[in-house]
Every structure is written in structure tokens, then in C-alpha cells.
């Protein structure tokens, strides 16, 4: 779908005077433009109707009618970004909004956590011979690497991947006994869905952490649902990251508890080397 609004915003400085006049009208009040005839828009911009037609064709539209259809589509997608609500401006207000959002999300994570699913996921991953951790596209990439960091210190074999093509290849080449854990905030990461489907073809157990009812959820052998309320303030980073991190920490500690002595032994060796080579005492985290 052609993003008419985005195209106008990025290309307006290259337009002629008449085209800039039309652009300013469209960007300032797209809703009104959708109700205008070509004659009305031409009159408001003080140009001729043929100029409007040429403007539409320059944007890749066949006609003024086609332009309005594409403008309506662009207007519908991401409506909050056309007229964003005014948010906090002082650092104190911003900090309060961010921290309150994180706190609410973490509390809600506990209330909605599927404890039975976490137990099944921990069992699946602990008994595997090797784990692949998949995610891509921002926060999900971070989560895939975070899972690797959480699990290797338990003495488990794990590798993360954030590249879709590599994910498909690794799923296809994985040896029996391999388990996959995958992350997606949206649940609509279709290339990752394809990699999980490939893993399923080869009988690899798949633990999926994502939104319920999503394409990702459909590929799960063990599904860990994550829910949160998204910000209305478009400038505030999503608190969903913290919902996923909390669920991942719950899963990691459950796995460590089920592993018992072997996890503690691996963590002790790591801590020994950190104390000797970095910290000099036992007060620092197991990592950095």
C-alpha cells in the first residue's frame, strides 16, 4: 500500500510551488480533502484541476479518485500519529508516566501469567539437548539474546538468532533433541512464523512467547501468552518489553529451580571467574 502521507512529508521540498500548496492542504487537513472534489481542492490551493491531476500522477496515483482512496488508506493506518494527543513535557512528568506504565505492566504480568504453561515450557527446555532462541525486529531481537544470556549461565547449550533466513536454516538443520524458544511482541512476524513451521515439520518442540490468538501462537507447542496495555502516548516507549522480560525471568528461574545442582554448579563457576578476574567480591551481578 502506497503511503501517500509519508511520501508527501519526505518529498515536499522537491515539489513545485503549486504542488507544495496542494501538499500543505493535504497534510494539514486530510479528512477535509477526502470530502473535496477536484475542483474544490484546486480552488483552495489556487491551482487548476489539471494541476491537481498531474500532482496525483506524480505521487503514483492513476487519478484524483485513486489519490483519495490511497489517502484514506494512509489516513486510516496509524491514526494516532496524525493528531497525537499532547503528553507530558517536563522530565519529572515523563519519568512518572514511564515508571507508572512499567509498574502497571509488571503487576498485570503476574495476574495474567499462565503458571502451568511456564512449567511445561521449563520442562521442554530443560530436557532438550540444545536450544535455539529466535526473535527479530527490535524488542524481540533483544529478548532472543536475553534468553541466551539467561540460559547459558544455567549450564545449558543455547544460541540466539535474529536473522530470518538463518532462523529457517537453523530450524531445518537442527539435530533431534533441539528445542526452540521464540519471541514476538506483535505475533505477526510472518518470516519467524515460517521458521517455526519448518521446525514443526522436523518435530522440534517450540516454546512461543507472544500475543494470544496470533500467527505466532498458532505455531506453539507450548504457548506463553503475554498481555499488556499499549501506550496512547506515541512518544513513550512500549511497556510491553517489560512484560516479556518479566515472563522470561519467571521462566528462567523456574528452569534453574528444576535443574537444581547442575545450574548452581555452572553459576558458581561463572561467579568464581568474575570475582577473581573482575570484581574482587561477591556483591556484583552474575554478568554485567
TrEMBL record:
What one GO molecular function would you report for this record?
carbohydrate derivative binding
Q: Where is the HTH rpiR-type domain?
A: 2-78
Q: What highest taxon heads this organism's lineage?
A: Bacteria
Under which name does UniProt file this protein? RpiR family transcriptional regulator
One Pfam family, please name it.
HTH_6
| Annotated SIS domain residues | 121-261
The record ties this protein, via PANTHER family, to: GLUCOKINASE (PTHR30514), HTH-TYPE TRANSCRIPTIONAL REGULATOR HEXR-RELATED (PTHR30514:SF1)
Write out the GO biological process terms: carbohydrate derivative metabolic process
Amino acid at each position: 500500500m502506497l503511503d501517500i502521507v509519508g511520501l508527501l512529508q519526505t518529498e515536499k521540498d522537491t515539489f513545485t510551488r503549486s504542488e507544495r500548496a496542494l501538499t500543505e492542504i493535504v497534510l494539514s487537513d486530510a479528512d477535509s480533502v477526502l470530502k473535496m472534489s477536484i475542483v474544490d481542492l484546486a480552488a483552495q490551493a489556487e491551482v487548476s484541476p489539471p494541476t491537481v491531476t498531474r500532482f496525483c500522477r506524480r505521487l503514483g496515483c492513476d487519478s484524483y479518485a485513486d489519490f483519495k482512496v490511497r489517502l484514506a488508506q494512509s489516513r486510516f493506518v496509524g491514526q494516532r500519529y496524525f493528531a497525537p494527543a499532547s503528553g507530558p513535557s517536563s522530565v519529572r512528568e515523563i519519568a512518572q508516566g514511564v515508571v507508572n506504565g512499567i509498574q502497571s505492566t509488571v503487576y498485570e504480568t503476574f495476574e495474567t501469567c499462565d503458571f502451568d504453561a511456564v512449567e511445561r515450557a521449563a520442562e521442554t527446555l530443560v530436557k532438550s539437548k540444545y536450544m535455539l532462541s529466535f526473535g527479530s525486529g527490535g524488542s524481540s531481537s533483544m529478548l532472543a539474546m536475553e534468553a541466551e544470556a539467561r540460559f547459558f549461565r544455567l549450564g545449558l547449550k543455547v544460541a540466539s538468532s535474529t536473522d530470518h533466513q538463518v532462523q529457517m536454516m537453523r530450524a531445518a538443520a537442527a539435530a533431534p533433541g533441539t528445542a526452540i524458544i521464540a519471541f514476538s511482541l506483535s505475533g505477526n512476524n510472518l518470516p519467524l512464523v515460517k521458521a517455526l513451521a519448518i521446525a514443526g515439520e522436523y518435530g522440534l518442540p517450540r516454546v512461543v512467547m507472544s500475543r494470544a490468538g496470533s500467527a505466532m501462537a498458532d505455531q506453539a507447542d507450548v504457548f506463553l501468552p503475554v498481555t499488556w496495555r499499549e501506550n496512547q502516548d506515541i512518544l513513550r516507549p512500549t511497556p510491553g518489553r517489560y512484560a516479556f522480560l518479566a515472563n522470561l525471568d519467571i521462566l528462567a528461574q523456574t528452569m534453574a529451580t528444576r535443574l537444581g545442582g547442575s545450574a548452581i554448579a555452572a553459576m558458581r563457576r561463572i561467579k568464581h571467574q568474575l570475582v577473581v578476574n573482575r570484581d574482587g567480591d561477591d556483591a556484583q551481578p552474575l554478568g554485567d
